[in-house]
């Protein structure tokens, strides 16, 4: 249970930092903030998928080879990281939209 709580805290922190950096990139047009936000999203996806892969593969496929576990965890990490990045990017665009509409009316 402690492992799950630690992983959940790491994923939460990385995801919120990713959203914060995406917002900064949208507000100030900083490419490095967008890149760091993307890296935070991928790191959050990696942390979550590694934990899930290691705990699920042990029960579902106990005699899996190292190559199979590595491949499955890599694919899940990329998919979850990209999903979290797309979600944080969409969230930052939705939060910035009212500011941009007020700016364009001036």
UniProtKB/TrEMBL annotation:
Transmembrane regions listed in the UniProt entry: 34-52, 64-85
Top-level taxonomic group: Bacteria
Statement: the UniProt record of this protein carries the keyword Membrane: yes
Alphabetical UniProt keywords: Membrane, Transmembrane, Transmembrane helix
Keyword Transmembrane helix set for record: yes
Name of protein: Uncharacterized protein
Taxonomic source organism: Tumebacillus algifaecis
């Amino acid at each position: 249970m402690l492992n799950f709580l630690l992983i959940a805290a790491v994923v939460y922190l990385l995801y919120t930092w990713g959203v914060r950096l995406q917002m900064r990139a949208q507000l100030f047009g900083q490419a490095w903030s967008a890149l760091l936000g993307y890296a935070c999203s991928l790191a959050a996806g990696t942390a979550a998928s590694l934990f899930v892969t290691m705990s699920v593969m042990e029960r579902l496929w106990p005699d899996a080879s190292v190559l199979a576990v590595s491949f499955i965890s890599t694919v899940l990490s990329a998919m979850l990281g990209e999903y979290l990045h797309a979600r944080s990017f969409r969230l930052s665009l939705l939060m910035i939209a009212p500011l941009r509409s007020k700016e364009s009316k001036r």
